[in-house]
Amino acid sequence: MIRNLSAWHIIVLVLVVLLLFGANRLPGLAKSVGQSMKIFKSEVKDLRDDDKDGPADGTETAATANGTVNRDRRPEEPTEGTTPPKV
């Protein structure tokens, strides 16, 4: 669908955006979108760094504390502070 855009389609799209937002508000809108993208990219980078590093001090994360990710413990063993499942 995007491949079928011609120059006329882009011109009409730009005119519609100008009519909707007005020429005075477009620089502020572009600045806001740029700042939002910068924040989003930095958060994604932080999440990737956290995943790559893992817990450095050996403490359990929230996911391993409730037993969903911890593969070292057998399912039959109760975790500390919980009761074993009733069979």
Structure description:
InterPro entries: TatA/B/E, TatA/E. It is found in: Cell membrane. Part of the twin-arginine translocation (Tat) system that transports large folded proteins containing a characteristic twin-arginine motif in their signal peptide across membranes. TatA could form the protein-conducting channel of the Tat system. GO terms for molecular function: protein transmembrane transporter activity. This protein is mainly alpha-helical and 87 residues long. It has a domain at 1-46. It contains three helices and no strands. The longest helix is centred in the middle third of the chain and has 28 residues, at 26-53. The mean pLDDT is 76.
Beta strands, count = 0
Low-pLDDT regions: none
Distance between the first and last residues' Cα: 56 Å
Number of helices: 3
- Shape label: elongated
Q: Helix amount, in percent? A: 40-55%
Q: Oligomeric form of this entry?
A: single chain
Average pLDDT taken over every residue? 76
Strand content: under 5%
For the sheet with most strands, the description reads: none
- Structural category is mainly alpha
User: C-alpha Rg, in Å?
Assistant: 26 Å
The H/E string reads HHH
Biased composition (Basic and acidic residues): 44-55
GO molecular function: protein transmembrane transporter activity
Family: Belongs to the TatA/E family.
Region (Disordered): 44-87
